[in-house]
Amino acid sequence: MNTTIKEIASLVNGLNFDEFQSEKVLDNSIEGVLKELELYLETHARNKEKIDLIIDYAANISHGVFPEPLTISEKQDELDVICMSLNILAEELQQNAFSINALDEIFNSLYSPFFIVNPLKRIIIKHNNAALLFFDYKGENKFQIFIDNILHQTIVSELENFYHNKELTSFSIQKEILLNKENRQIILNLNKITSTYTNEQLISVFITDITAQVENEKHIKAKEVAEHSSKMKEEFLANMSHEIRTPMNAIVGLSNLLTKSQNLTDKQNEYIKSININSKNLLGIINDILDYSKIEAGKIDFENRAFDIRESIQYIYEALCMPIKEKGVLFTTYVDSNIPDFIQGDSVKLNQVLTNLVSNAAKFTAKGEIILSAQLIDLSTSNLRIRFSVKDTGIGIPIEKQKSIFDSFTQATNETTRKYGGTGLGLAIVKKIIELQKGTIDIKSELNKGSEFYFDLAFDLPQELEIIPTTKKSNNSRLNNLSILLVEDNAFNQLVAVDTLKDASEKIEIDVADNGLIAIQKLKVKTYDLILMDIQMPEMDGHTATKTIREVLQISTPIIAMTAHASSKEIETCFENGMNEYVTKPFDINNLLEKIEKVTHKKIPLESPVDTSIIINFTKGNQERINKMVKMFLKDTPNEISLLRTHFENKQMNSLKTLAHSIKPKFEIMGMPDFKTISAQIEELSVDELNLTKIENCISQLEIKVPQSYEIFKKLIK
After folding, report:
1. Per-residue confidence band for 120, with pLDDT thresholds at 50, 70 and 90
2. Which of 46, 67, 434, 530 could link 439 by a cystine bridge, Cβ 3.0 to 4.6 Å?
3. What whole-number distance in Å separates Cα of residue 324 and Cα of residue 362?
4. Contact in structure between 287 and 248 (CB atoms under 8 Å)
């Protein structure tokens, strides 16, 4: 503000400027004005009342109080001019005060600490509330704080170094400070500024607390290391599994075929029986290691489907009763009559747990009995809780070992390991599976008298009964007249697969391709009902061959992977590349036959994927509207399905869900209810990355089947 005493005086007639002692700027000089006015009163004692008003008004605005403006008379004498000047001054001061308050509000709204330091006087002359909170300042004086009373010494040192460095005008550095007994990671931003009024050099300080960010980066780094370690372990287990399972497939398969031979001597039968038993033991060890790896990686999923609990228990009994009876041990089962026939949960995982516990009991029981029981302990209208128990009269477990028996790679004693074998993973897997289903498992045992393992699990009661049988008898006659392409490079595995399938049904036709490249050539000249695809092969592996079949040849023949890897990642890759099912080597013939039945008969093609009457009814037969809608459908749909694939591959689950939701009504209006259902499934499944395999199957169906509708729609255009 440039108004001066001289300028005011020059506006007043008869007021001699030379009588004033000095020229002073009104901004921040109200006291000077009052003094000059007092001097004026002494020498010019006139209009005392108005001058008193002027003095009171000047005093008020000097203290930040802004009353109504001074009244200006019509004659506008010398004092009126002073009144006008003071009114202008008051308005400017009021605006200045508003700006300062607004700036204070901005400072105090900042989440990060901010303050201005006078380094020579070693005081903080301006700060926001965040600065006081960050440094936990509890002093009464919040208008002028000595830097040593609030700032950490590290920061004070940086301020001093920065102030004395004439070359720097700004500076930024990351520091670690101990503040309120906690280590804080901060970024210190310093800038040199000059005071408008005093011309002193000041420093503005802005602090960003990045402690949480640094900790998060540490966690991310640790997670990356853990994920890398997990990936390396998974790759090792996959390779180990493949290397062991490949020869095991030949051993188990050929020994199974030999057992059906009529010309073997008793001694040869005994040898084959020994081969089978030891092969199964070795496979059990491999499966335990792979199962534990999947559980550790959090890649285990649980189904929630209706099943027959009594059939499930009976299946375990039939599978294990013979080897138990051969030891001279009695094996019995009991299911509480109050348990409903059908319950809802994961029957496969339940069977795995019970089979493991019964097999464990059989291993350590030389005489007496083993009892598998299921007892109802709680029942409501929608769910129930069952206690399962496996009780034996075996060697028992010392009380000091009972708490650790569920730990990984742990057995009761070293002698147990030497005498009975095993990895010590079985019970660890059992405990993990039960706990992941929010159940509990415990043990009662007495040395040399036996053990009882018991656990409680909750199940739902099925509202709509869609039963998935625990066991399924394969109707091999349904496999008659199937033409199969077996893609396998190992001669022994070719022999096992061909002879095993021929043994199941003589009317199966099987061609063999030694690798994926040969398979592609065969598929160009012949059509098959099914492809059995090995994964690791020379020239062209199973994954590459499958992608070529699906993407280049555009063949939708069902493909079952025959993999020795058996890891969750490998299986997921099989589905991602377009395979319909998988079996692990060495394969169980019943499991393979069930999978063949499933993929070759599970879907009956629709005569037409489109009900054209729906769009005709929707448009009321208006040909112009039909043409417009069909052309828009043919233009947009291929891009939308392609975008579904892109979102899926980039794991953009929210975008995938939104797009699937948006195309549902289109399929409904265009008379494609099946595709509307598939879109709804994608939308529903997109809430969780654990559903990637199912989502992939849905997208593949759209990619294969929707294009089949294009020619039908083109015929509607006129």
Report:
1. confident
2. 434
3. 6
4. no
Q: How many Å apart are CA 538 and CA 541, to the nearest integer?
A: 6
Paired tokens of 43: 């020498």
What ranges make up the beta strands (E) of 461-574?
A: 483-487, 509-513, 530-534, 559-563
Euclidean distance between CA atoms 586 and 659, whole angstroms: 42
- In our burial notation (b when 16+ CB lie closer than 10 A, e otherwise), range 523-545 reads beeeebbbbbbbbbbeebbbbeb
Report the SS3 class of residue 306: strand
- Over the stretch 57-75, which tens digit does the pLDDT of each residue have? 777 776 667 788 888 877 6
Residue 87 phi/psi, 5-degree rounding, is -65, -45
Q: What angle do CA 396, 397, 403 make, to 5 degrees?
A: 145
Q: Of residues 76 and 339, which shows the higher confidence score?
A: 339
Residue whose C-alpha is closest to residue 590's, from 702, 469, 466, 713: 469
- Four-point Cα dihedral 592, 278, 346, 334, nearest 10: 120
Question: What CA–CA distance (Å, rounded) separates 454 from 212?
Answer: 45
Is the model's pLDDT at 230 over the cut of 80?
no
Question: Per the structure block, which two tokens stand in for 234?
Answer: 């998974």
Which residue spans within 40-181 are E strands per DSSP? Answer: 114-118, 123-127, 145-146, 170-179
Q: 704 or 139: which carries more pLDDT confidence?
A: 704
Q: Which of 561, 597, 603 shows the shortest CA–CA distance to 578? A: 561
Q: What is the mean pLDDT of residues 542-558?
A: 91
What's the pLDDT at 395? 86
pLDDT for residue 438 is more than 50: yes
Average pLDDT, the chain: 76
Q: Which residues fall within 8 angstroms of residue 86, CB to CB, at 6 or more apart?
A: 54, 57, 58, 61, 70
CB 207 within 8 A of CB 134: yes
Q: 441-479: per-residue pLDDT in tens?
A: 899 988 888 899 999 999 998 865 444 444 444 444 456
Q: Are 124 and 116 in contact (CB under 8 A)?
A: yes
Predicted confidence (pLDDT) at residue 196 exceeds the cutoff of 70: no
Instruction: Say how far apart CA 604 and CA 239 lie, in whole Å.
Output: 38
List alpha helices for 126-177, DSSP H. 129-134, 153-164
38, 18 contact by CB (below 8 A): no
